[in-house]
Amino acid sequence: MNRQMISAVAHGDHPIAAPLADDSVARLLDRALPRGDERLLDLGCGQGAWLERAVRGRPGLRAEGVDIDAAALDRATERFAREGLGGQILLHAGNAREFTPADRFDLVLCVGATHAFGGLLPTLEAARAHLAPGGSVLIGEGFWEREPDERTLEAGFGADEYAGLAGTVDKVTADGWTPVYAHVSSLAEWDDYEWSWTGTLAGWGLDRAGEPDGAAALEAAAAHRDAWLHGYRGTLGFVTLLLRQTPR
């Protein structure tokens, strides 16, 4: 199983690829899309979970997503067609870093996919290039709730990989952005996300006991669960920021 397949399976019961509950997602979208007729771009959209939630109840919204995982986009396209949402959502297969749409967007979204651009600030730089005048960015990023200890670092993180919450916001404001709203994921949201991620993947593996992919899924689920419970639980936080460009 490659990384994309593992992620697709693991997010089967928690399609938002970040520690956010459904009501948190709804509240963020309500803040980010006040009119309901905006143009939205999701950089690293995966199977289009944010796009689907954004267009529901907003018939005037037009949404686009780009992702390198063509198989995930195919599944999303089929799902949108079944649910009558295909006319509002356009998906593009390709590298989000190289995406060059003809139009600009009122909202550019990247939650749980900043690694595709090399981190927070490079993601914001990419988003800036796609924004219409007065547009906003909705971006999700990790931060240290507390200083990472040895167990967190052994789970595969670097001590300087993230800043604290204040330091993260300072980076954003120094880069020319003003936060107009934010949501800090709770420990309960983290736990629900991680139990769903590891549990869904493990269940998939158990259903395929004796098969190579089943064994690989169980191994990946156990490694992720151990890294979370013995490593970064309560140390790694997640903030989703709604940003507008600061006037020069």
Automatic annotation (TrEMBL):
One Pfam family per UniProt: Methyltransf_25
GO molecular function: methyltransferase activity
Record keyword Acyltransferase present: no
Record-linked InterPro entries: Methyltransf_25, SAM-dependent_MTases_sf
SUPFAM superfamilies associated with the record: S-adenosyl-L-methionine-dependent methyltransferases
Ranges where the Methyltransferase domain occurs: 41-135
GO BP terms, alphabetized: methylation
Top-level lineage group: Bacteria
Alphabetical keyword list: Methyltransferase, Transferase
Identification of the protein by name: Class I SAM-dependent methyltransferase
Source organism of this protein record: Streptomyces jumonjinensis
